[in-house]
Automatic annotation (TrEMBL), chain B:
Pfam families: GGDEF, HAMP
Annotated SUPFAM superfamilies: HAMP domain-like, Nucleotide cyclase
InterPro entries: DGC-Regulatory_Protein, GGDEF_dom, HAMP_dom, Nucleotide_cyclase, Rev_trsase/Diguanyl_cyclase
Domain of life of the source: Bacteria
Keywords: Membrane, Transmembrane, Transmembrane helix
Transmembrane segments: 166-190
GGDEF domain boundaries: 299-432
Protein's UniProt keywords contain Transmembrane helix: yes
Record-annotated HAMP domain positions: 190-242
Name of the featured protein: Diguanylate cyclase
Amino acid sequence: MSASFKNCVFLIFGISILCCIVSCDFSAKSTSLTAISKEKITIAVSNTPLSAPFFIAEKMGFFADNNLNVELVRFDGGVKCFNALINQQVDFATSSETVVMFNSFKRTDFSVIASFVESDNDVKLLSLTPEKYRQLNNIANTRIGIVKGSASEFFLDTLLIMYNKTHLPIDRVYLTSDQLIPALLNDRVDIISAWEPLGYMLSEHMSQAADIINSRGLYHLSFNLIGLKHTSVDEKHKLALLKAISDATVYTHKHPKHAQKIISQVLNITPSQIEYSWADYTFRLSLSNALFSNIQTQSQWAIDNQLVPVENRVDFRQVFDRKLLETFNNKEAGW
Amino acid sequence: MMLSKRLKWTAILCAMLTLIVGLSLIQVHNYQQQIYRQLNYSMKLQLSIDSLRSQLWLYQEYTDKQGLIELNNRQAELAAELSQDIDWDVQQKIIIQNLNRLNTNVRALINTQNSNHSTQVDDASTLIAERLFKAKYSMVIEEMTEEMFNLHQLSIKHAKSKQQTLLWLVGAVLLVLTALITAWSFMTLVRFRHGLYSLNQGMEALASGDLTSRIVFSDDDELSALASNFNSMKHSLTQITVKKDSLKQEVDRQTHKLIEQQDRLIFLAEHDELTGIYNRRAFIKKIDNAIARDLRSDDQAALLFIDLNKFKQINDTLGHSIGDEVIVTLAQRLMSNLRATDIVGRLGGDEFVVWLDLIAEPIDIDQKLTQLLNLIKQPINIGPHTLEVGASIGVSVLPKHGLSSRELISAADTAMYQAKADNSIEYCYYAGDHGISTLANS
C-alpha cells in the first residue's frame, strides 16, 4: 500500500465528484439551451426610469442569458411607444395603463402581456405656493394647468371626487406637458397636475416640496408590456422575455444602488432625479384585477368626460393576455 | 505511517463525520424552523389581509363610526404584523415593504373617504365617490393578495432551494467523508494484514532453522519496527551460533593436541629415548602379552639377550656420541630385519633383547640368530670411521626355559654370559631345566 495507491484513490474520488457536478450543471443548462434562437426582438421603451427593468436587462445581459436578441428602441413617452407598436415598427411596446385605456376604444389588435412597474405617487398637484392649498377647499377659483385627456386630468378629477370637491369652481387650463412648468413659473396657472419628472424639476426651483397635498396611494400609475395579438414572436420567446424582465426586477431588488446608477447613465439624468422618485416605484411582474379595475375606472372617467366615443363599449377582458403570465408564473413556481 | 497514528486519524475522521452529521441536522432543523416561521407568518398576514378586506366591504355597506373603528383596528393590526422582523431575504423584504405601502394606501383612502364623509353634497356625486373608493379599495386589496401570492411563492422557492442546497452539500460532504474513512480503514487493514503476514513468515522461517533470511519491510509503522527488531534478534542469534561453533572447534583442537601429547608421553614412557625401540618396561609388558597368547595357543617363542662386544672400546676411544650412533644404527638394523610379530627392546647400555614370536622349529631360531649376528657384524660408517662390533647372544625358549618374562629374561641373560665367557661361541641357549646347553658355535 504505497503513496501512489493513496493518490490514486483520492484522484478517483475527485474525478467522480467532478463528473457529478459537471453532469448536474450540464443537465441544468441543457434545458435553457433548447430555446436558442437569435431572431431580433424589438421593444419600444419610454425614456423614463419606469422602463428600468428593460434597461437593466440589456445592460446586465439578462436578455442574452435567456437567449434573446433584443433591441430596445427608445421613445419619449408611452404614446409614441404604443404608436410604434401599432405601426409594426417594433414587436413590443411599453406604456401606461392610460394609453392602453384610450387605445382600447380605437382597436382590439393588441394585448397587455404584463405590468412591470407601478407607482402610487407619480402624478401630483404642484404649486409654487403649496402652503396656500393645504385645505383643498382653497383650490376654488384657481387656475389649474392640466394635460387634456391624460393621467394629469384623470388624477385631478379623481382627487376632486374623492375629496368631494367636484362642486368647486375651477379654471382648467389645458396645456401640453412641456408647457406645464413654464406656465406655473410665468404665473399663467396657480397649480399644475403633473407627473414625474416634472415634480422633481419644479423642486429644483424651490426650497420646499411643491406638492400641495399628500396624494400618495390615491392614483396608481403602471407601466405595461404590450404586444400585438398577431405577432411573429412565438410563446417561447415571450416567456423568455418575461424571464429576462423578471431577472432584471430581481436584480433591481437586490442591487438598488447599482440599478439606479445604470438608469442614470442610460437616460443621462442625474442620480438625484432617479433617487427622487425611486422609492415610489414597485417593480414586479403582474397582471391582476387591480390593473383591470384601474383601467376600467379610467375608462369610466373617459366616458363621463366624453373623451372617448360613448357608443364604443370596451370589454377590457379582451385587452389582457393573462394566459402568458400565468404560464410564466407556473413555470417559475415549478408547477 | 504508524498504525496507532492511522487509527488516530480514523478516529478523527469519524469524529469529524459525527460532527458534520450533527451540525447538518442542527442546520436542517434551523432551516425548517425558519421556513415554518415564514410560512406561519405569511398565513397570519393572509388572514389579516382577508380580515381587512371583509372589514372594508362592511365599511362600504355601513359607513358609520363603528365600522370605521373596526377598520382602523384591522388596518393597525396588519401594520403591526407587517412591522415584525422575520428573517426575510432581500426579495421578501421588498414584498413586505410593498405590502406596507399598500396598507398605507388603504389608510390614505380611508382618511380621504372619512374626511369628506360629513360633507356630502348630493347623492349623485356621493354615489360616484363611493364607486371610486370601492374600486380603489378592491385594487389595493387585489394587489395585496397578489403580493401575498408572490410572498408564498418566493418563500416556497427559497425553502426548496435552501433545502436542496443543504441536501446536496451535506450529501456531498458525507459521501466524500464516508468514502475517505472507508478507503482509509481499508488501507489500514491491508497494511496491518500485510505486516502481520510478513512477521509470521519470518517467524516460521526462524522456527525451521533459517538464520540467514530477513523480513523485508518498506513502511515505518509498528509492525515494521517489530520486523526490524526481529531481524536484529535474528542477526544476534546468528552471531551467537557462530561463536559456539568456533568454541567447539577450539575445544576439538585442544583435545586433539592433548591426545597427541598423551600419545607422545606414552611413546616416551615405552620407548628408549636414544633408539626409539621399546625400553625394558615396555618390552616386558609386550612380551607378557605375547607369552599369555602363545601359552593359550601352545606356540613356541624365543627370547634373545644381545650384548655387544667391542662397544666399550669404541665408546672409550671415539666418544659417547659415536657410541650412541653405533647403538642407533644397530637398533635400526634389528628393527628392519624382524617380523611384524617380533619385538625388539633395549635394556640399557649395549644390551638389546629380541622376542621371536611363533617359532615353529628350533632351526628357525638358529637361522634367525645367524642372520642377526651377520647384521650386527656388518661395518658401520660414521664420519671418517668404519667401525665393527660383535655380539654375544643368550637364548631362552618358551615354554621350555620359563613361563614368564622374568624367567625367560633371566635365562637368556644367563645364557648370554655363558656365551660371552666362551670366546668360541657367539650365542648360547639356556641349558634345560635351568641348565645351560650349547646348541651351536661359530
